[in-house]
Design goal:
Elements lengths: L3 H8 L6 H11 L2 H6 L2 H5 L5 H10 L5 H10 L3 E4 L7 H4 L7 E6 L8 E5 L6 H16 L3 E4 L5 H11 L4 E4 L13 H9 L1 E5 L12 H10 L3 E4 L8 H10 L3 E4 L10 H8 L3 E2 L3 H7 L17 H9 L5 E2 H8 L3 H13 L3 E3 L4 E4 L2
Parallel strand pairs: 3-4, 3-7, 4-5, 5-6, 7-8, 8-9
Antiparallel strand pairs: 1-2, 2-6, 10-12, 11-12
Helix pairs in contact: 1-6, 8-9, 11-12
Length: 358
């Protein structure tokens, strides 16, 4: 698209958001003409003096060819509202981002997506329900959207990849950066099986005020938002509220009423969010006939495995408690649990805690 560099140029000018860019396009007909416009011409379309001064001051500092070269170097695709490849569901939201930067690939099947969000300080319970629900959603054919943050976001992305599914990470910074830095390797893996997405130009740092805008893209790309664990003031609740504004479904996993980590989810349910206990609760609400077939469960092959299966449930149990109850040596229990995990019988929940799978 010959106009693409001018879309990028306007995206680099502070204060030129969807509304002002729409004004500019409507008046000039194309962005190349708008980029060349002088002060009186810009004022004539109703832009306030501050916006006009910003445009006139910023334009000479922007090297459009250099910006295009940087995007090519990072293999970043740019989708504009005029582009047929722009995500249709995102295009529907109020003030859809005019420019979307993408590393990786957005596919047509990503229209069937669910955002999964939650606390950065996730508990063992939060990890378990996130992993199990995301695995089921991927098996049902859904793409998982999240924000690459610590905690639930990271767990959701990893679970989607582990299940062989697609996942999209929406960032609150330019795509030449990865935040948090510890997720660099995960981000690279996501690019191979999905995409990194942002509406922020290259070089934008992840400032606090960027995250609400990031969250509205997450919900905008999705059929709904699932909150698996959240405290009362969690940023995940902002995403849930944005989803409601965009007429998306909101789902929440209930938790212990005495646990601060579950207060956000419990409040969402109290206020009308769909309570989720299993994947089918989500699929039925979305009218999706994609219910996964139950996998064939591996059976215990010896007495030690049988004892452990009888003792475990879907509630986490520490290896020390398993050893005490079965009166088996720690080395025997540890090696057996490792084999059972490979067979898909149990799941490690971190911190030497285990639970039955499924």
């Amino acid at each position: 698209m010959s106009e693409l560099k001018y879309w990028i140029g306007f995206s680099l000018i502070p204060g030129i958001g969807p509304v002002r860019l729409s004004q500019i396009r409507e008046h000039f007909g194309d962005l190349e003409r708008a980029w060349q416009a002088n002060g009186p011409e810009l004022e004539a379309i109703g832009l306030d003096q501050r916006a006009v001064k910003t445009i006139l001051a910023q334009r000479p500092r922007i090297n459009l060819e250099a910006e295009m070269a940087k995007l090519a170097r990072y293999r970043i695709k740019v989708l504009t509202l005029d582009d047929p490849s722009y995500p249709p569901r995102l295009r529907e939201i109020y003030e859809a981002p005019p420019v979307l930067y993408v590393r990786g690939e957005l596919l047509p099947e990503d229209e069937w997506a669910l955002a999964v969000v939650g606390s950065r300080r996730v508990t063992t319970y939060g990890r378990q329900v996130t992993e199990e629900l995301v695995t089921g959603l991927v098996e049902a054919g859904l793409t998982i959207v999240s924000g690459l943050a610590r905690g639930v976001d990271t767990i959701a992305h990893r679970a989607a990849l582990k299940a062989g599914g697609r996942t999209i990470a929406v960032l609150a910074c330019g795509l030449d950066l990865v935040y948090p830095g510890e997720n660099l390797e995960l981000a690279q893996e996501i690019m191979q099986h999905g995409a990194l997405v942002s509406d922020y130009p290259l070089g934008t740092r992840p400032r606090a005020e960027n995250f609400p805008r990031r969250n509205r893209i997450m919900s905008g790309l999705s059929l709904g938002v699932l909150v698996t664990e959240a405290m009362e003031r969690s940023g995940a609740l902002i995403t849930a509220n944005l989803a409601l504004e965009q007429d998306r479904e909101v789902f929440a996993v209930p938790g212990n009423i005495f646990s601060p980590a579950s207060r956000g989810c419990n409040r969402l349910i109290r206020d009308g969010a769909k309570l989720v206990q299993e994947v089918n609760d989500i699929l039925e609400e979305l009218n999706l006939n994609l219910v996964p077939k139950a996998p064939q469960k591996a059976l215990p092959e010896n007495e030690v495995e049988a004892q452990i299966v009888q003792l475990l449930s879907q509630e986490p149990r520490h290896i020390d408690e398993i050893c005490r109850t079965t009166r088996l040596p720690t080395s025997t229990v540890a090696s057996t649990l490792a084999l059972m995990e490979l067979k898909g019988m149990v799941r490690s929940l971190g911190g030497m805690n285990y639970a039955l799978l499924g």
